[in-house]
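#struct-help
A.M.: can someone run this one for me? Single chain, 288 residues.
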Amino acid sequence: MSAGIEDYEFKGTIGSGSTGTVYLAHQTELDRDVAIKELAPELAADPAFVKRFRAEARIMAQLNSGNCVRIYDFLEADDEAYLVSEFIDGASLREVVQSAGRLRPEQSLGVLKGALMGLSRAHAVGLVHRDVKPENVLVDQDGVSKLADFGQAVAIGEAELDSMPTGTAVYMSPEQVRGRKLDHRTDIYSCGVMLFELLCGRPPFVADGARAVMRMHAVEAAPKAADINPDLPEGISVMLKKALAKTPAARQQSADEFLVELEATAVAAFGEDWEERSSIKKLVLAVL
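D.P.: on it. Structure tokens below:
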């Protein structure tokens, strides 16, 4: 067992995925609940993967943002590796959407704003997330959205994919699908896909099988969100179309630029007090 893991009392399983299993645990010395991700055995036994993950964990520890899940520790020994992080007592955005259905435009912009603020910090310390999606946005009981699961993140400048693209097909950028070198603008595209889904109740591209969806990302124009949700203000449709541009140069060029555009669009559509009506706190509580 990894040195230091005995300091935690495991309380149950939160979830699992391709890179490992996440547990709820209690850190007895500091009297706080934490989330502990145990790397899948085949990954923990791969020295190259563990080395990269350890380096990224050090960068992730710099994500001092209220909109990123904080990293507390990285523990390893033999063929075991654990990432200890902040426990968010709430629900994933995926769970909220599955329970509530399509969000109101104000709510959609509000939750995206939190995710973009987290991305802004991640990009500032040199990370490309590569897997922005509703499952990786956690919302606490106060309605604050936090970007989570940097398990597929890589440093900007090193974000060159293998022959098999990394990420989730529904949210992949065209350059991700094509296996090209990535920068932070791939996350902008994924945010656009997520916003489309929040506003329309479905992602822009739907098909049988991941390969078909990936091909659509690469070559097909996204449908107009207003054709699916006619009540959308024009400004939101324009902003969304820009985020879903096929070429990175045609998108918002940073999370900060996206945030400025989002705020201006929201104020124009809903007034200066738009955030007062954007909370999804009640929707989160309904899931718990």
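A.M.: thanks! Strands lie at 8-17, 20-27, 32-39, 71-77, 80-86, 90-92, 127-128, 137-140, 145-147, 154-155.
D.P.: also worth noting: The chain has eleven helices and ten strands.
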